[in-house]
Write a structure and sequence with these properties.
α6 links the parallel β3 and β4. The chain has two domains: about 70 residues, no CATH class; about 110 residues, 3-Layer(aba) Sandwich (Collagenase (Catalytic Domain)). It has a five-stranded mixed β-sheet with strand order 4-3-7-10-9, sandwiched between helices. A three-stranded mixed β-sheet has the order 5-6-8. Strands 1-2 form a two-stranded antiparallel sheet. The radius of gyration is 20 Å and the shape is globular. By secondary structure, the chain is of the alpha/beta class. It is built from seven helices and ten strands.
Length: about 200
């Protein structure tokens, strides 16, 4: 087991970049605006804790990816940007959330509030929950877990068809396992960055 830790300088480069224009913009923020950003640079931060890897099979260990700082993200030509005509995030609950203490309605209401805070300035709307049967997705029972699983690609296609015209994106949420193809055991979620659809379980 090991934890991924970065120096304060590395975190500043990742979140602000080395761009002099972005550094100058950061330095012009008032103390209140800089408070949350500064919290990310502290090694003992309560908001941005180190990522702990439990084994070599953890996603970060098994699927290494190149790093990306804020400037690279901001200038990515494939980054989808909101416009006055498409500035709404739609949340689509799919299937029941089971016999948990928190109902589906309570959970998605909480999720709506979180998205409004995290994506400040965007409109977030909840779509009426739908049963899995209306999605037309294919299924399987996992040979190892014996859990029912929905085909992730089919679910993305369903969400794409249902995406409102003013949507920045539509996000499907479900407690049912997802699988992207027969050779995979499961997947946590899947998205199309260019079409503005995603799903998580």
């Amino acid at each position: 087991m090991r934890a991924i830790r970065h120096s304060e300088e590395a975190l500043k480069v990742a979140l602000i970049s080395k761009s002099s224009a972005l550094v100058k913009q950061y330095e012009s923020l008032d103390p209140g605006e800089r408070l949350l950003m500064n919290e990310a640079f502290r090694r003992d931060s309560i908001l941005f804790r180190p990522i702990t890897l439990q084994s070599a099979s953890d996603w970060i260990s098994a699927h290494p990816e190149p790093t990306q700082d804020f400037e690279e993200f901001y200038r990515d030509p494939y980054r989808k940007k909101p416009t006055p005509q498409s500035n709404t995030i739609y949340i689509q609950a799919i299937g029941s959330f089971g016999e948990s203490r928190v109902s589906t309605e309570e959970y998605v209401t909480w999720l709506k509030g979180y998205c409004e805070a995290f994506y400040y300035g965007m409109t977030v709307k909840l779509l009426a929950p739908v049963p899995v049967s209306v999605t037309g997705c294919s299924f399987r029972v996992n040979d190892n877990t014996h859990n029912l699983q929905i085909h992730a690609g089919d679910l993305l296609r369903y969400l794409k068809r249902k995406k409102p015209s003013d949507a920045f994106c539509i996000v499907g949420i479900t407690t049912i396992d997802l699988f992207p193809k027969e050779s995979w055991n499961f997947v946590f979620g899947q998205a199309s960055l260019t079409e503005g659809v995603s799903e998580v379980d």
